[in-house]
């Protein structure tokens, strides 16, 4: 009988330890999930920034091309 009580106590300690480990794992998983959500948001922000920069660059290149064309045209017509 006493042996059974010791065995039950031992099993209870093991169960308690396992429960604590599961709780820590759940906390770690929640933390990882939060980091993933934050990372997704960061990726979306970066993607938007890249798109914005790309659009500005394209616009700037068009402006430069237009300016260069106008300047070349003016120089060509002057020399005639």
Write up what this structure looks like.
With 80 residues, the protein is an all-alpha fold. The protein is 98% helix and 0% strand. It contains one helix and no strands.
Question: What is this entry, summarized?
Answer:
Keywords: Coiled coil. The protein is mainly α and about 80 residues long.
List the helices and strands and how they pair.
Blueprint: H1 2-79
Coiled coil: 8-35
Keywords: Coiled coil
Pick out the low-confidence regions: none
**Alpha-carbon Rg, integer:** 34 Å
The overall strand count is 0
Main sheet, how many strands, which sense, barrel? none
What percent of residues adopt helix (DSSP H or I)?
over 70%
Our estimate of the beta-strand percent is: under 5%
Mean pLDDT: 88
Number of helices: 1
First-to-last CA distance: 117 Å
Order of helices and strands: H
Oligomer: single chain
Structural class by SSE content: mainly alpha
Shape verdict: rod-shaped
Keywords: Coiled coil
Coiled coil: 8-35
Keywords:
coiled coil; rod-shaped; mainly alpha; 80 residues; single chain
